[in-house]
Amino acid sequence: MNQIDSERDVQEPSTHLLKTLVGIHAPSGEEARLAGYLLQHIQKEQRKWKVKPEIFTGPEFQDCIILKFGEPRTAIFAHMDTTGFTVRYGNQLLAIGSPDAEPGTCLVGYDSLGPIECYLDYDQEHHALYRFERAIERGTSLTYKVDFHETKRAIESPYLDNRLGVYVALKVAETLENGVIVFSCWEEHGGGSVPYLARFIYEQWKVRQALIADITWITDGVYPEKGVAISMRDRNIPRRTYLDRIIAIAEKNRVPFQLEVEGMGSSDGRELQVSPYPFDWCFVGAPEERPHSPREKVYKKDIASMIKLYGFLMREL
Amino acid sequence: MNQIDSERDVQEPSTHLLKTLVGIHAPSGEEARLAGYLLQHIQKEQRKWKVKPEIFTGPEFQDCIILKFGEPRTAIFAHMDTTGFTVRYGNQLLAIGSPDAEPGTCLVGYDSLGPIECYLDYDQEHHALYRFERAIERGTSLTYKVDFHETKRAIESPYLDNRLGVYVALKVAETLENGVIVFSCWEEHGGGSVPYLARFIYEQWKVRQALIADITWITDGVYPEKGVAISMRDRNIPRRTYLDRIIAIAEKNRVPFQLEVEGMGSSDGRELQVSPYPFDWCFVGAPEERPHSPREKVYKKDIASMIKLYGFLMREL
Amino acid sequence: MNQIDSERDVQEPSTHLLKTLVGIHAPSGEEARLAGYLLQHIQKEQRKWKVKPEIFTGPEFQDCIILKFGEPRTAIFAHMDTTGFTVRYGNQLLAIGSPDAEPGTCLVGYDSLGPIECYLDYDQEHHALYRFERAIERGTSLTYKVDFHETKRAIESPYLDNRLGVYVALKVAETLENGVIVFSCWEEHGGGSVPYLARFIYEQWKVRQALIADITWITDGVYPEKGVAISMRDRNIPRRTYLDRIIAIAEKNRVPFQLEVEGMGSSDGRELQVSPYPFDWCFVGAPEERPHSPREKVYKKDIASMIKLYGFLMREL
């Protein structure tokens, strides 16, 4: 019965969930809103899951959430935050992470005077600013207004990076028997939650294998609809023996995948790499077009292959 | 009586203390001199304090000092080090942190041949060098010669960043009932003490709320004599829910304050953010003119508002 | 007898060991090969050592190795990895660390089709690429083909940085009574092992004194054949009181040494500096010509002085 329920979830309801996740305003530092939604969702859905997880949340975890299933060996890290902008002085904006948008992009947020829907612009020195009918309070965060498009082959929306990673983690949770799922904060802007999350799961359960469920880029070597990307390196270099085990599992189970090799970019994996705990990590995620723009695009085949590969990896690593 | 003593301290003697702190040569890596002075001062003054703190010092803390008062929930971090210069080869100088001074600035220090009073200069490629009657030993550190000016409204001196933060922490100590005060090292040059200090206070007392008592900049949005700055972000972004609590306490208690929003700069807060402990942090400090120059200037109203706000925050957070 | 054996080792066999170490393909992320060799070597040689160390290895240490002798107070850190290149897409190469080589340099490695011996080239925008008779698999690592030259005065070879540091640590091990030797990973490419190695040795044995056995540069202030360099600073600044103790030991024991003062460069020391453990650290290593090139050159006098100084430091610190 659970099986039937979860199969049904893979179809229509799932796009609905992703659309909801994408629409929650939660740039780095303000993940509390998304965390609140996820906790409600998990409380409601877990009765359909194969294994009911132990949930770790509260002040010791700031706005992060840890789910522990069975006897874990491997942890999935999916960051909850997005890029965005902070209102500085006058109509100046500062970037949160690395947003990439054109003048005229619609930005939304809230301050004590109410909801905001304003427009992005740039001055002659390419400094970001907003156009709005009133002044916005200092420190207010703004994110892209969501325009979610779905076709038979692809999804186009802002913030697939990384609401899609969160979504994949929730899909994997449905059938997960042993493992940890971590929803982390601040990934787009300097990090800071992964070190204590790593400490916790290492000290509690000696877990030191990690998979980074995040979204990567379509490039001259990673193509649309060719499967999830297994990243052999980005700015950081994971341990080769761990990489080889992941690639072997993907090959054995005939999941479509692509090998990514980059010199730039980083992820929650970087923070695991330099944490005081001996984590092996690997970035495994679908590639997208137009990263950090209001029109990120991911192909459904690649999402399906990402979910499938995570299932095998969590069982076999 | 203690009350009377400490009130008296707020007046004339206090400027004397600040002047003394500013005059101690202790750039990053050589904080031992200042730590020695502070320990003596604390030993002497603590009998006048409302609560006598437990003092943590010694090799396990390098040159840092931790004071623990009562049942702590929140820690003040005040860094002891300053910017400066290191003598390289010949008459070359390397920066410690980011000093900002003109040719002709007088620099002081010591090497095995005795005290040094030399002059800063720059070559045609803007490399720093010294002019002195003899060669200075490799690795010798130099700092600005102190010229301390006080008017009715302001104090002008090098190294108000961060001897003024240290001074404020000592003023707050006089009436502090519950809390931790941390005197840290290396803030101006890459950090390195905050991670183990954070580990200690988190493991010992589960303290995970922090306030960064440091000096910030007068800018196009932060003005002189408008009160202490509460920084909503710099290079790093603190957790919004913690920020909101701090702002609410400042408003409720009608302490003059200003909201700062920056994209650059960082503090001991950055190291708390990325430490393996779940610290909330916020930079709360008076603004200054001419940061890192021999003529930093801070207004007395802003110092008073900084001391006052710390009092409320340590009680109410 | 052990004495005689170890004296013999100082002569001819030692060059043989260094040559072997230099020839093992182990860039950052692929240290497993070198670690495997070192474990075999240590198992075989330790019976000749003054004290038989406890050996720590296995998944909790990834590819690192810790040797513990007697009652340790000080740890030697020697990184095992080297710079190199990763094959990206087509014939593109990405740097591992900062290799510095001319077009035409011979590079070697392995992929599933067998051993590789190809040539380095650069395109017009100075992007690295390889020239080879077949395509090399994505993610394959390449290192310089070793051409090892020894004269009466010097050794010339790639990867003296840091196989020479590993070699020195093994020489020191022969007579070490109390101390820790750590063989670390990823130093050339962002680090990541030192934080957990530091945690382990601090938590196990309260060791918080460290020496970085690595190779530095011949510059306008550090000369060939003038002795091992004691680095007073690089990008990071160690604690002055620890530095002074090291310099005093070198002086007292009349080991030839030079004081280095730099504003750039870093080492495993940086990771100790910012770790959540209160480590004092100092870089102590021979200088070389042409760092990170296929023709690094170190003078034998400087190697001898490095080994000698480490002996004194491990006894007297």
Explain this structure to me?
Three copies of one chain form a homotrimer. In chain A, strand 1 and strand 2 form a beta hairpin. Chain A has about 325 residues and is an alpha/beta fold. Chain A contains eight helices and 19 strands. Helix content of chain A is about 30%, strand content about 25%. The first copy, chain A, starts with a helix and ends with a helix. Chain A has helices at about 1-10, 10-20, 30-45, 160-175, 195-205, 240-250, 270-275, 300-315, and strands spanning about 55, 65-70, 75-80, 85, 95, 105-110, 115-120, 130, 140-145, 150, 155, 180-185, 210, 215, 230-235, 255-260, 280-285, 285-290, 295-300. In chain A, helix 2 (about 10-20) packs across helix 4 (about 160-175). The radius of gyration of chain A is 19 Å and the shape is globular. In chain A, the strands form four sheets. An eight-stranded mixed β-sheet of chain A has the order 1-2-12-3-13-17-15-16, with helices on both faces. Chains A and B meet through strand 5 and helix 5 of A and helix 6 of B.
